[in-house]
Give the backbone structure.
Amino acid sequence: MIVKRSDLSWLERLYLPTLWSGLKVTFRHFFNTLFRGKVVTMEYPEQKWVVPTGYRGAPYLVKDQEGRTKCVSCQLCEFVCPPKAIKITPPGPQPNAAVGNVEKTPQEFEINMLRCIFCGFCQEVCPEEAIFLMSDYSLTGTSRKEMVYNKAKLLSLGGVHNDPIMKWKQKQKEAQQQEAFKPL
Amino acid sequence: MINYLNDLIHNNREWVFTLAKIAGVLGILMPMIAYSVLAERKISAFIQDRVGPNRVALPLLGSIPILGPFLTRLGLWQPLADGLKSFLKEDFTPAHVRKVYFWLAPAIALVPAFMTMAVIPFGSFLGTEKMVLADLNVGILYTFGIVSLGVYGIVLAGYAANSKYPFLGGIRSSAQMISYEIAMGMSVIPVFMLVGDLNLSKVIEYQSAGFSSWLIFKQPIAFAIFLVAAFAETNRLPFDLPESETELVGGYHTEYSSMKFALFFMGEYAAMIAGSAMMVTLFFGGWTLPLFGLNEIPQADAPIWYGIAHIVIFLAKILVLMAIFIWVRWMLPRFRYDQLMDLGWRRFIPLALLNIVITAVVLFLTVK
């Protein structure tokens, strides 16, 4: 394809009309920014980017509507985690008196956010829907230790997950019924 | 002691007052340089739909309820941070530079810009003192002589750095110098043909009659050429060929850091202020304003506010021209240096010559 290049007219070669239109464009931008607030800058710490749904941010633990920690210490996420950022301490054989002998809420659950690569495998593999990659993308701390998030911190950051099934509520009821059942 | 001081002032009146005036001029010029950098950054930001510097806050002033955050947002303290940063940075001298010239170049770039301020009348009278550092009869010749020295700083920096990009910057600068300076000198000749004197105070007197006597209206072509030449003179876009960040890294100051770099930077802005001051003096009536009777040449015993008002008018006019300098920067792409030379040699010099001839003919026909 041949681009046709027409000769510039006398007025165009004078350079002045271009000068004038340049002044107009820059002045319009100046005016709009200063008086109409049409700024493209996002002033970061004060204004934050809203991430789209499905964004893979930091992984946090969640509770269900009744305040039950959903994690059951199956340790699948710990095994699947490619950078080995997750460390779970299971509760051991002692039953939790509050919930009965049905689930194994982890004693401690640590995610090292410095190691985490936000791949989402933990969320993918979790059979209990207890861990989710949320929208936090700016994790900061003043020490390495601070960047290892423990269970309490992960739960408080994760919040509540509305679980329509509530599997463990049923299981707990059954377990309690079983314990209350006295054979003849 | 007091008597001694009185005697000293009395016997060396001229010296004392001149020194005081120099201190005053520098005291205004230095903050103006600092704040024109801020103005540059802010105006650039607004033109590019950005916010500009808005973070530097002073501990106490920043906590005044509404004013503090507003000033912070305005970036009013940014120059302090910038200055402090330049002082604290490492002053690195690369091993391959030519040391003597390397040290000399920033000073040579800065000093001429300051020296041009000496002949510019920045006000009428303050008390009995005339507000000009040196009321030379050949003011404009002095200015052109000094201004052309400023280029040597850049050429020398390009040479002293002893590396590729600064060298290219230096070459471009010298090519630029020979092409615009003649046009610049010729463009103001009609002005002095009209005024009939080379003294800048006389130029202002000539323009004090009213807006119609301002030389921008009488000599628009001369002003246009002078304006373009002033842009080339101060290495501002669209003529910032010696610097051209995008192609020559930093041009002539690539190898400079810390305060030596800051000197080049200050030199550029001081040259902008000096160029604006020259344009105000030559074409915009200097410190006069044909409103409220501020255009009359005052007697030596005029009230002091009168003198202050004149200085303020002069500064305000400079600020307007500085804003135009900054504004134009974001409007035009950089010229190639053959284009600049073409513009200087083949467009402006003939145009300036034509302007001289036309002015001469008109003067010949109208003035007896």
Remarks:
- Chain B touches chain A at residues 43, 45-51, 54, 327, 330-332 (CB under 8 Å).
- The mean pLDDT of chain B is 83.
- The beta strands of chain B are 125-126, 129-130.
